[in-house]
Design brief:
Layout (H helix, E strand, L loop, with lengths): L2 E5 H4 L9 E7 L5 E2 L3 E5 L2 E11 H7 L12 E4 L1 E5 L4 H4 L3 E4 L6 H17 L2 H19 L11 H9 L8 H8 L7 H19 L3 H8 L1 H9 L1 H9 L54 H4 L10 E7 L5 E7 L1 H10 L3 E4 L4 E4 L8 E8 L5 E8 L26
Parallel strand pairs: 2-5, 9-14
Antiparallel strand pairs: 1-2, 1-7, 3-5, 4-5, 6-8, 9-10, 11-12, 13-14
Helix pairs in contact: 4-5, 4-8, 5-7, 5-8, 7-8, 8-11, 9-10
Length: 404
């Protein structure tokens, strides 16, 4: 024996009256072995004592691998060394046990969606539920590429962090809960939620194709960039035998510059329930925007409000775009500036393909409700031309000036 460690809720000082006591016994030269559990009695009260024996060298190696319960997120879990052999003490006397994040498992995520689709077509209800739960556990490992770093200390905190990722597809939290089996739903709803999770994740991680290539290979990364992966996910979302929908002709008007704007298909979303304002939300597009906010908007006939975007600290005006109710909802709830493209009839998230992200710091509505002021932290160029701001051409002002 070379050391005894206390882990879990007692080490985190978060134990309740019902918490187990988790102890690792580190030994030299022996494989991992879970010991029989003990029920220790003290003052008439029973406590569950869980003991595992681990080879100290493989235990140290394990600290360099992702935790299988952490949804792909990095771990920093407190531990308490109760006793150690002097030779090993410097190496195992760690105040926290750190494990790295998992690699972005995009290939496995796509394969798991295939299992969902196969079980759906076979009418295998248990198979759909099992595969959907696996898919939900994989999704955060891929989305982590587009999100700020976060560390977790327990399985419960890992679930909370995974559900609260700020950069995520629309309806992400609800779809995750449904796929994990933490919210009731039919197998058809599960299959649709799984498709939305994967389909919504692809455009968000497209700027990180290089990182994905290192893990899954160049072909999968190329398929992510050129749209083949999106087409494949759409194919999996259709039951076998159903023909694909005919492709819609592009609407006339200005198109996006290469690598600048992302378009995301409009998801199925519940109606917000807002009372109609003088201008109705755009027909055919539903939204989860807070009804109290939706009721104050004064929209154009096509259901839009202007969004003026500025740099949050300098006040520099960067661009003007358009939002409908759902685009505003996504902007407020994901922390990523999301707009409605009038020419293409689709949503786009600024920076998702170019890497020129807009992280939202605050959003304000003007007194008439017909314009939105979005204060962002702009990374790189805001304009599709490559300029920092869209307002880079000064016009001559020839009017008479008043002398002071």
């Amino acid at each position: 024996m070379v050391g005894i460690l206390l882990r879990g809720s007692h080490a985190r000082r978060a134990a309740t009256a019902h918490s187990d006591v988790d102890v690792d016994v580190l030994v030299g030269g022996a494989p991992y072995a879970a010991r029989r559990a003990y029920l220790a009695e003290h003052s008439g009260r029973l406590t569950h004592l869980s003991v595992a024996s681990r080879d100290v060298r493989s235990w140290i190696v394990r600290l360099g691998e992702p935790a299988d319960w952490a949804f792909g997120l990095p771990v920093t879990a407190p531990a308490r060394l109760l006793w150690a052999e002097p030779h090993w003490r410097p190496r195992i006397d760690l105040p926290v046990l750190c494990q790295p994040a998992d690699e972005p498992r995009l290939e496995e995520l796509i394969a798991t969606l295939g299992k969902v689709a196969g079980a759906r077509d076979a009418g295998d209800q248990l198979g759909i539920r099992l595969a959907a739960a696996d898919l939900a556990r994989l999704t955060p490992s891929v989305l982590r590429l587009a999100n700020p770093s976060v560390r977790v200390v327990s399985r419960r905190s890992a679930l909370s962090a995974a559900l609260d990722l700020p950069v995520a597809p629309a309806g992400y939290r609800e779809d995750m809960l449904l796929c994990l089996g933490l919210r009731p739903g039919s197998v058809g709803q599960l299959a649709a939620a799984a498709s939305r999770l994967v389909g919504g994740t692809l455009p968000l991680v497209r700027p990180y194709a290089a990182e994905i290539a290192e893990v899954a290979g160049a072909d999968l990364a190329a398929a992510l960039v050129d749209g083949r992966l999106r087409r494949y996910v759409a194919q999996l979302g259709r039951p076998a035998g159903r023909p694909p929908r005919p492709r819609r002709e592009a609407a006339p008007g200005r198109t996006a510059g290469a690598g600048q704007w992302l378009t995301v298909p409009v998801p199925d979303a519940p109606v917000s329930g807002a009372h109609p304002s003088p201008q109705q939300p755009a027909p055919g597009r539903t939204s989860r925007l807070d009804p109290s906010i939706a009721a104050r908007l004064r929209r154009t006939p096509d259901g839009l409000v202007a969004a003026v975007v500025r740099q949050h600290d300098s006040g520099e005006v960067l661009m003007v775009a358009w939002m409908d109710d759902e685009a505003l909802h996504r902007t407020l709830t994901t922390g990523r500036a999301t707009y409605w493209s009038r020419s293409r009839g689709e949503y786009w998230v600024k920076g998702a393909t170019s890497g020129h992200h807009q992280y939202v710091r605050s959003v304000a509505m003007d007194c008439d409700g017909d314009a939105i002021l979005v204060s962002v932290d702009q990374l790189g160029a805001a304009c599709h031309t490559g300029h920092r701001t869209c307002f880079f051409e000064d016009l001559p002002v020839t009017g008479a000036r008043e002398e002071s």
